[in-house]
Amino acid sequence: MLEIRNLHVTVDDKPILRGLDLTVMAGEVHAIMGPNGSGKSTLAHVLAGREGYVVTAGEILYLGKNLLELAPEERAREGIFLAFQYPVEIPGVANIYLLKAAVNAVRRHRGEQELDAMDFLVLVKEKFRLMDMDESLLYRAVNEGFSGGEKKRNEILQMAVLEPRLAILDETDSGLDIDALKVVANGVEAMRDPDRAIILVTHYQRLLDHIRPDRVHVLAQGRIALSGGPELAQELERRGYGWVEAEAQKMAGAGAQ
Amino acid sequence: MGNQAVQLDELISQDYRHGFYTPMEVDALPHGLSEDVIRMISAKKKEPEFMLEWRLKAFRHWLTMTEPHWATVRHPPIDYQDIVYYSAPRSQQDGPQSLADVDPELLRTYEKLGVPLHERELLAGVAVDAVFDSVSVATTFKAKLGELGIIFCSFSEAVQNHPDLVRQYLGSVVPYTDNFFATLNSAVFSDGSFCYIPPGVRCPMELSTYFRINAKNTGQFERTLIIADRGAYVSYLEGCTAPMRDENQLHAAVVELIALEGAQIKYSTVQNWYPGDKDGKGGIYNFVTKRGDCREANSKISWTQVETGSAITWKYPSVILQGDNSVGEFHSVALTNHYQQADTGTKMIHLGRNTRSTILSKGISAGHGSNAYRGLVKVAKSAVGARNYTQCDSLLLGDRCAAHTFPYIEVKNASARVEHEASTSRIGEDQLFYCQSRGISAEDAVSLIVSGFCKEVFKQLPMEFAVEAQKLLGVSLEGAIG
């Protein structure tokens, strides 16, 4: 589904990703871990098409297409979804209105009929139960005055409604209490599907107590330093990131010579 | 930054869509202003002596005044001798008796603007007093309103048919000495709308005037006078679009509202005059004086405006709260793009006891646009228990525009309560990217964010106007929920 080859990305002329390779198959859940500043969020934003992240080398293929040629909204319509670490507030725009605009943008793109207000409401209410959210959030302005947990749940709700092919969750677990974490994890688990891939970007292992990934990757020095199964996450929890970083530095040093 | 900034620029640099010019024969006076010109205007309109006298007093006073320059707007000097102070579509001379008699060219112009009078009549139940250049061309629904004793006609007709009402109320809210532009208007105003709602009558439909500026180099000087007698209610809509023009056109209208005991007047404006091109060339200068007088107890006046047009907007719809317990409201959306400038706001003058006022101002600046809110809340010694709440929000698109807020508060009574809140925000790339990452195009995302910002004001507009207002901001109401 997703194939990243030798990806180099700079932000403000500073190299962040330096030759990242990653392959994600449909039906898989991958966890991208790593210390702060290792480039985890950069990877998430590059996939979603964020402005200001300059790809200087490498390629990204999504369902066989060159992802880098697509505008952010085209990527979304093709089934890519990014759950933001810091979802923005949009005052005066009802949450449900944004959601409906998003759903219908995707449906138009697929050549499907747009949902009317009633059908849409039925769909959303069903997802609301899944996320254990208060329905009043639907009519409040997008993320405005939402608590940290509500914002994150709202992201997962959007994901559930939009049903993406490839979902990227950027530090969705950060700032969540244990109950919210469980709700979010259940939401993600419910999204597991043979046709869908999920990438979890996370600093901590604790989200992985609730969502069992198929693959775990450790990012260091702008590339994937280590990959393994779910047991790798536990090892990181025990030993920290220091040793991986040291290894990566050695490798980077060797590569430079 | 690059692409997204460029994209934003493209979105906000769309050309004026109502830019076209209807060629028509025009019966106009020569350029310039003098007592003779004023006498000619008055004579052409067959006005009674008191009107001519009033005009001349205004003109003589105007000669002693100087153009004000305190607003945060800049423009080249206006040559008042290079303006044509009266022009009427020639086909008007015989006076069309019905829509069928109206110049088809005129009707087509309205058609292009999406205001087919006959359809509007039928579908929306709106009585339209259409002002094309300086003379009203069609007034509809008059008979139906007449049954209720409501007078809704052009100002010229009111002068002919209801001189006593005109004499009693004209200049009673905005005196001819008021300010440079209002005084000029008093001297030369060509036409406008007049409305009188008799005691206890609730006007059953929205009254609407569709203003339009057309003839070359013709300043428009409209005069509107609305009187709601005791216990009466009226909702009045004013909507404007203008064709593409190269020269700057001066527009100095005056609107006077009078609400007697327990009466209520709701006045809504959607203004979309030609703003000039994207380099700041051309466009309308809109220097307007609008003021309402809650003359007696328990009366209420609400102004709602959506200002998207004009090169320069200079406009402060105000309310004088004389009557005890009277209420004044001002709800405003002002959008400036390219090189547009707006200095707009309101004055709430609290004189009576327990008077209340609310001010809600939303300014949107894009491109090189400059937007200023200027508001005065004045509580006189006599205004025991007066209350005001003011909220001014500014939204910036891009990094070359400007927003200013100038709140003036004068309180002379210790029992008054005055609150002021202000905020400034930007449509951030964060917000745009967030919407885009949900599949929404950048263009739709801007519309979405702007309409969210303006929502509280749009809610104040009558339904059909709210739709038009949203369209003006490039927003479709389709798909709106709840």
Automatic annotation (TrEMBL), chain A:
Instruction: Recite the UniProt keywords alphabetically.
Output: ATP-binding, Cell membrane, Membrane, Nucleotide-binding
The ABC transporter domain covers which part of the protein? 2-246
Q: Which Pfam families match?
A: ABC_tran (PF00005)
Provide the family line.
Belongs to the ABC transporter superfamily. Ycf16 family.
> PANTHER family from the entry?
ABC TRANSPORTER I FAMILY MEMBER 6, CHLOROPLASTIC (PTHR43204)
The entry's protein name is Fe-S cluster assembly ATPase SufC
Name of the gene this protein is made from: sufC
From TrEMBL, chain B:
InterPro entries, A to Z: Fe-S_cluster_assembly_SufBD (IPR055346), SUF_FeS_clus_asmbl_SufB (IPR010231), SUF_FeS_clus_asmbl_SufBD_core (IPR000825), SUF_FeS_clus_asmbl_SufBD_sf (IPR037284), SufBD_N (IPR045595)
Q: Which residues form the SUF system FeS cluster assembly SufBD core domain?
A: 211-453
Per the UniProt record, one Pfam family is: SufBD_N
Where do the SUF system FeS cluster assembly SufBD N-terminal domain residues begin and end? 141-202
Residue ranges of coiled coil: none
Stated family: Belongs to the iron-sulfur cluster assembly SufBD family.
**Under what name is this protein listed?**
Fe-S cluster assembly protein SufB
Organism of derivation: Aromatoleum diolicum
What broad taxonomic lineage does this protein's source fall under? Bacteria, Pseudomonadati, Pseudomonadota, Betaproteobacteria, Rhodocyclales
